[in-house]
Amino acid sequence: MPKITQLLFDCDNTLVLSEELAFEACAELSNEMLAKKNISDRYTGPALMTTFVGQNFRGVVTGLQQKHGFKLSDAEVDDYVNRELGKVIETLEAKAEPCVGVMPILEELGKSKKYGLAVVSSSALSRVQASVKKVGQDKFFPPDHIFSAATSLPVPTTKPDPAIYLHACKVIGKEPGECVAVEDSKSGSLSAVRAGIPTIGYVGSYGGVIKQKEMAEVLKEAGAKVIMDDWNQFDDCLAQIEAM
Q1: Per-residue b/e over 17-28, b at no fewer than 16 CB within 10 Å?
Q2: Quick one: which of 149, 150, 132 has its CA closest to 141?
Q3: The predicted structure's pLDDT at residue 153
Q4: For the whole model, what pTM was predicted?
Q5: Do strands 97-98 and 16-17 pair parallel, antiparallel, or not at all (unpaired)?
Q6: Residues ≥6 apart with Cβ < 8 Å to 224
Q7: How far apart are CA 120 and CA 145, in angstroms?
Q8: 135-156 as b/e, with b when 16 or more CB fall inside 10 Å?
Q9: Among positive and negative, which fits the CA dihedral 148, 153, 158, 159?
Q10: Beta bridge partners of 179
Q11: Cα dist from 239 to 130, 148, 225, 244, whole Å
Q12: Cα dihedral: 155, 28, 15, 193 (round 10)
């Protein structure tokens, strides 16, 4: 394996506790969408998160259309995506917090300068920027090394498409094998793995030991090399990958 020189972090529920906050806004707009199409099903934030965790809202809208058998025009999709983004950013700027234990790790990495650091997310760039700024993580990541599958690519996409990871590697100037990704979701892990990037699966943001064990198996099946229950295990997990 090539020498690891670059770390690529997912944002939502990996660096920042943001998924639950974001899916509250997603659920409100999703239910509005379903009501306008005379579909009786309704979602809570947690229910929507269980189904679509790791995807951006454009991916959620696509999934809802497929699941419930309705069609939106491109203009309608763009309108919902833009409205959701505004609602989510407002919520994150007020309530977002860092994932438990991540700040000391980022401080250590920032001081050592052994690895380049970047954020690779499905979420819109403005949302990711708002999240990391709110929790004081923006100082660790060069502004041009924050990447969004919804914003940074010529054609918007979402994880598990590997396009955003491949794009990040190209911009940074690294081969996938020189990088390690940290991901908390199946779609995110698949995205990194399909790009050829060794991946640490992080389950610490999931509530309860049973859910964490369940997600650990999901992330392993998605191709994660090692599983991290807590950020205090990061150095050991990274060392395991570097020794492979």
Answers
A1: bbbebbbbbbbb
A2: 132
A3: 97
A4: 0.86
A5: antiparallel
A6: 183, 189, 193, 199, 200, 201
A7: 8
A8: bebbebbeeebbbbbbbbeeeb
A9: negative
A10: 6
A11: 31, 27, 12, 9
A12: -40
**Identity at 157, one-letter amino acid code:** T
d(CA 140, CA 126): 17
Percent of all residues in the chain with a pLDDT value above 90, rounded to a whole number: 90
- 3-state SS record for the chain: CCCCCEEEECCECCCEECHHHHHHHHHHHHHHHHHHCCCCCCCCHHHHHHHHCCCCHHHHHHHHHHHHCCCCCHHHHHHHHHHHHHHHHHHHHHHCEECCCHHHHHHHHHHHCCCEEEEEECCCHHHHHHHHHHCCCHHHCCHHHEEECCCCCCCCCCCCCCHHHHHHHHHHCCCHHHEEEEECCHHHHHHHHHCCCCEEEECCCCCCHHHHHHHHHHHHHCCCCEEECCHHHHHHHHHHHHCC
CA distance 72 to 38: 13
User: How sure is the predictor about 25, in pLDDT bands with cuts at 50, 70 and 90?
Assistant: confident
Measure the CA–CA gap between 130 and 215, rounded to whole angstroms.
Answer: 27
As a whole number of angstroms, the distance between CA 192 and CA 181 comes to 7
Structure tokens at 217: 């198996």
